[in-house]
Amino acid sequence: MNVYDFDNTIYDGDCSIDFFLFCLKKHPQVVVYLPSQIFALIKYKLCIFSKLKFKEEFFSFLQSLNLPENDVKTFWNTNQYKIKSWYLNQKKDDDLIISASPDFLLNEICNRMNISNLIASEVDIKTGKFKSNNCYGREKRRRFEEKYPDDIIDKFYSDSESDHYLAHIAVKAFIVKGNNIEDWDDRRKLNNGD
């Protein structure tokens, strides 16, 4: 099984930020959430808020959308082109996408790409509240091992050192910077996967 992080790995950018900006343009009332989002970011940077609490505050703007499911579809109509061509050229239907981004955003694009294996943060599309732990760092590995206990990661791709937990258990791991793909082996020697 080949496993891929999503944001800044196979997608050029951060889809959560892109979706917020898309909604801000389409629904100007979303701007009222900006001060609380900025305040939450400051609290997160000062270690007052957890990453999960910050992300819940960030996604609280979903409460102002009448039909967020339609906004997700329209968003991908205009942003699907940001899936990187190197990934599309090697994509397999049994690939696994694993991401801290919300499932409500990634379900749509995975369906469009005919990918049925997805692990993502479970977020209520109406409220922005998390229904699971943030799928980040060690949590990605825990959820992979829980959902696919007998599977082996043949190749793993990510842009982030925080994914060393999965890189450590992959047969081969790669770090992605833009469209450059480099062997992760040197980095993996520095991390024992704990």
Structure characterization notes:
With 194 residues, the chain is α/β, with parallel strands linked by helices. It has a single domain (2-190), classed as Rossmann fold (3-Layer(aba) Sandwich), CATH 3.40.50.1000. It is 41% helix and 15% strand. The protein contains nine helices and six strands; from the N terminus they run E-H-H-H-H-H-E-H-E-H-E-H-E-E-H. The chain has a six-stranded mixed sheet with strand order 3-2-1-4-5-6, sandwiched between helices. Strand 5 (172-177) and strand 6 form a beta hairpin. The longest helix has 12 residues, at 15-26. It is globular. It starts with a strand and ends with a helix. Residues 187-194 have low confidence and may be disordered.
CATH class: Alpha Beta
Main sheet: strand order: 3-2-1-4-5-6
Question: How far apart are the first and last residues' alpha carbons, in Å?
Answer: 22 Å
Strand content: 5-15%
CATH architecture assignment: 3-Layer(aba) Sandwich
Overall morphology: globular
**CATH homologous superfamily designation:** HAD superfamily/HAD-like
Helix content: 40-55%
User: How many helices does DSSP assign?
Assistant: 9
Low-confidence segments:
187-194
Count of domains: 1
Structural class: alpha/beta
Q: Provide the CATH topology.
A: Rossmann fold
Q: What can be said about the biggest beta sheet? A: 6 strands, mixed
| Strand and helix order | EHHHHHEHEHEHEEH
The radius of gyration over CA amounts to 17 Å
How many DSSP E strands? 6
> How confident is the prediction overall: mean pLDDT?
94
